Amino acid sequence: MPQLSLTDFVDIVSKSGTPKATKVREVKYRPAYTPASDYYKKIKHAIIACHKHNLPISTLEDAATNTSKHKIQNYMTICNGYTKWLSAKKTVWISPPCFTFEHAGVAVNINPELGLSINNQYYYIKLYFKAEKLTKNRIDIINYLMKNCLCGLTSDSTSVAVLDIRNSRLIKDHSNNSALSALIKAELSYISSLWDDL
Predict the structure, then answer these.
(1) Element (H or E) spanning 115, and its range?
(2) Which residues does 189 contact at the CB level (< 8 Å), separation at least 6?
(3) Which of 10, 39, 42, 102 is packed most tightly, with the most Cβ within 10 A?
(4) pTM higher than the cut 0.90
(5) pLDDT digits (tens, 9 = 90+) for 105-154
(6) What is the arrangement of strands in the sheet containing 106-110, beginning at the earlier edge strand?
(7) Tell me, what's the pLDDT at 44?
(8) Which residues lie below 8 Å from residue 89, measured CB to CB, with a gap of 6+?
(9) CA–CA separation, 154 vs 99, rounded Å?
């Protein structure tokens, strides 16, 4: 069964025509994951550790500056954006769950990086690191899939959200579930039909 990351799936959905098929091919034949190939791994783990182990926010700047030269500028932008968003918020760590969303023989891994209680409101949060603009379509798909998979864990006091780190913006779920459900299933069916022919 094809296994896609949530980021890969959203990237595929965001494309149309030939570029969509090209992206599916790229995902299928990409080398297996290695930590060295994960551009944002160090800063992502620093953010998680900051909350999980109750470390000072200054540890993010340490992670941002103690990295390879070609990453420092991006890492500092992320560090500054995250610090600005976190400012004056009282947070408590909650271990976020991981699930898969399956349809048409394709699985999408759903893994929010953060589980936080923020001023007594609970959130499962997917971190968005890229400089590329975070569109409404991407936000809606991410939030819908997280809410769908975490439906037994969400309530009036627990929400899903995407954190656009560079812009210090937490975007909660306001998706149209019926329309998105059909769209997502159609996209997964497309991936399934194309996968074996690539």
Answers:
(1) strand 114-118
(2) 103, 104
(3) 10
(4) yes
(5) 999 999 999 999 998 889 999 999 999 999 999 999 999 999 888 876 65
(6) 3-5, 106-110, 99-103
(7) 96
(8) 118, 119
(9) 14
